[in-house]
Amino acid sequence: MAVNNDHSTDGNLDLFENHKETSEIQEKIPENAQATTVLVGAHSGLSCVISAFVRLAGGCDLDNFAEVKIPVRFMFVLLGPEDDRVDYHEVGRSLSTLMSDKIFLEFAYQARVSLASKCFLLFACSPLLLVACLIQRGKMNTEAWKGEATLSFDKVTCVK
Length: 160
Description:
The protein has about 160 residues and is α+β, with helices and mostly antiparallel strands. It contains 6 helices and 3 strands; from the N terminus they run ααβββαααα. The chain has a single domain (about 35-155), classed as 3-Layer(aba) Sandwich (Mannitol-specific EII, Chain A), CATH 3.40.930.10. The protein has helices at about 10-20, 25-30, 90-100, 100-110, 115-125, 125-130; strands at about 35-40, 50-60, 70-80. It has a 3-stranded mixed beta sheet with strand order 1-3-2, covered by helices on one side.
């Protein structure tokens, strides 16, 4: 696959880059922060699911991979056959949530290439899963907590 990195004729890209550099979000990100890129998709030519979780040796500047300029340290790629029973997007959202968990992230930084490390990462999912509250989309009464920054467990009610 050939990649053309010469974007000199694309004026819209320059505007986008300037917007990213001056955004309010960029100002709030810690100086040593690193990003995770999660890519998921389906293709009719595939017969099985292919996935990779990669920790790069150091943070890399991957142009236009994130909304803000931040070095990418982890990448997760998941590709599978088209199947109405599988929502690859939700798998990507789940992994993104895991990468925001401090305990899992520490395990991810320390993992090595081995079967033990794969088990290590699966074990690292447990602390988040023990405290997570799963709420089915569209099945919850949002009136009780509208306008609040955080969701209190005692205010969660289901729609009947």
